Amino acid sequence: MDMWYMWFTFLAGLCALPAVLRTLCPYFVQDCAYMLHVLRCGARLELYKRRTRFYSILDCFLDAVRKHPHKPFIHFMGETHSYSEVDRESNKVAHALQKVAGLKEGDIVALLIGNEPCFIWTWLGLAKLGCATALLNFNIRSKSLLHCFSCCGANVLLVTPELCGAVEEILPALKEQSIRVYVLSDACSTDGIEGISQAIAQAPDEALSPSLRANVKCRSTALYIYTSGTTGLPKAATVTHERVWAASFIQRVSGVTSEDVFYLNLPLYHSAGFLIGFTGCIERGNTFVLRRKFSASQFWDDCRKYNVAVMQYIGETMRYLCNTPKRADDRDHKVKIAIGNGVRPDVWKEFLNRFGNIYVRELYAATEGNIGFINYTTKVGVVGRVNHLHKKIFPYALIKFDIGKEEPVRNADGLCVPAARGEPGLLVGKITTKSPFVGYAGNKLQTEKKRLRDVFVKGDLYFNSGDLLRIDNENFVYFQDRVGDTFRWKGENVATTEVADILSMVDCIEEANVYGVSVKGHEGRIGMAAVVLKEGKAFDGVDACRLVTNYLPVYGRPRFIRIQSSLELTGTFKMKKVKLVEEGFDPALIPDPLYFLDLVEKKYITLTKEMYNLMIAGDIKL
């Protein structure tokens, strides 16, 4: 009897265990599943690195071609390109570039191409030759565009015909640097730009020998992806083949399968679009729908047409979708997973309520960073969880940060102070063999600025993310804000110094202090500048508009100008921004003259209280 009672008690306890775990550790199963994914991905990457010849994401693509050659790889504007077709097109590109441009392993090639299939097979062709590729933001112009070549050392530029105008502006300087320019068309009337489409069309589509890329290793440079920073010019983040693999695993960790159709409408020059989207699809062996740019009105129709199961987003994406007129078929789709970053909790909730039970995999990462998080639960508003295995493999911490001084708080011993639970802190990731920080090409100064020394012990070394995060009592991680001279608007990073340099070109402006301010109902911060006018000059709204529209992309143009008699400086002569950011752009609270960039009038116009109210109400589009 005692034996039967013991067995009964044991079985009852065993049956009750799941309920107890759900009560005491409600995320236990999800934590374990995530840890298993991390271990599997880590083991796969180690296996690829230990092979006699490194197994790259390109090799993964070639295996997919052999496994399912006729499977659709890209849907684009009514066309469908199979895995084998994309493979053959990339072979033709590689053969042509090898013959015409003499490209070989180790060369660096810059791409100025929009979202279209030729971007995909051009990159694959370059990878087959063992070339590193610089992915240029096709919105940038002039000084910034030219700088991109200088910092990464690219010696060849491939451009599409519609973007030739941007290249022609800097062509004399490119010639001085001996950079060869090829346009993806049959011919070009501009001296110094050579058409290459005919050579590609006539090139053979046979496979290229792997010996052409025999020296490519896991730590070799695969890409240069540009990110804005405090220098005011784009910084070329060095992305190794190892980093490409790590980012491509995000789809797997998010639950994406090889049968899922992925919707890619983010720019391919972004790490999100290229690494998580494109190379993630290679890793999964699935199909993706490629769009030139995001369209809220066409989004769900595309998803229904192609049976999309996985979408990518930035915070603005979901807000735009929620702002479209409601339709009876809002939930008539097969989207089950959304992967991205930057969505506000209120928009997140509205999105789910309207469009159905979609698993939102909100993540935190940086192109050049060595630490990232992903929300593998259904909790709204978080970017991930503190997972002990993850933290052991990739050590990180949140430390106290003085926003006014823009530097970490240090104790009497000169060491950083950990942020308390629930307190925002600067995220820092320990630089180790498994979590390296490669830095920026051609920019040792900015690379060093991202390295934080003597954090917890003398001599240790951490990556400074430049971001404030917070961890709550349930171990959930929340993104709080950015620090320093960069803010985010319309899903793009804006470097304040670059904008200030352009404003200083305006004839009436003596000095400019650029920053981002929050606007109700919008993600990120919109550009604003406090300026001092030259003595005896009045503010010229027409000239200011002309300069910013000619030299800055839409997301980088300051929409508000504040005229001040002088700019407040710190003791080390840095411009103070904190107070300006807090004061915003309300004419009722600010005694200084305020102006608003009116793109219809093509000038900065006086900002009135009535206009301010309409902006806050959402009646004036920003």
UniProtKB/TrEMBL annotation:
List the keywords (alphabetical): Cell membrane, Fatty acid metabolism, Ligase, Lipid metabolism, Lipid transport, Membrane, Nucleotide-binding, Signal, Transmembrane, Transmembrane helix, Transport
This protein's GO cellular component annotations are:
endoplasmic reticulum membrane; plasma membrane
Q: Enumerate the spans annotated as AMP-binding enzyme C-terminal domain.
A: 498-574
The record's subcellular locations are: Cell membrane
Q: Which Gene3D superfamilies match?
A: 3.30.300.30, N-terminal domain of ligase-like (3.40.50.12780)
Give one GO molecular function term: long-chain fatty acid transmembrane transporter activity
Report whether Hydrolase shows up as a keyword of the record: no
Its membrane topology, per UniProt?
Multi-pass membrane protein
Database matches in Pfam families: AMP-binding (PF00501), AMP-binding_C (PF13193)
Which residues belong to any copy of the AMP-dependent synthetase/ligase domain? 63-376
Question: Which SUPFAM superfamilies does the record match to this protein?
Answer: Acetyl-CoA synthetase-like
Q: Catalysed reaction(s)?
A: tetracosanoate + ATP + CoA = tetracosanoyl-CoA + AMP + diphosphate; a very long-chain fatty acid + ATP + CoA = a very long-chain fatty acyl-CoA + AMP + diphosphate; a long-chain fatty acid + ATP + CoA = a long-chain fatty acyl-CoA + AMP + diphosphate
Q: Where is the signal peptide?
A: 1-22
The biological process GO terms on file are:
long-chain fatty acid import into cell
User: Which EC number(s) does the record attach to this protein?
Assistant: 6.2.1.3
Query: Mind telling me which NCBIfam families this protein's record contains?
Result: PRK08279.1 (NF006134)
Supply the PANTHER family for this chain. Answer: LONG-CHAIN FATTY ACID TRANSPORT PROTEIN, LONG-CHAIN FATTY ACID TRANSPORT PROTEIN 2
The family this protein is said to belong to: Belongs to the ATP-dependent AMP-binding enzyme family.
Name the UniProt record assigns to this protein: long-chain-fatty-acid--CoA ligase
Q: Which organism is it from?
A: Silurus meridionalis
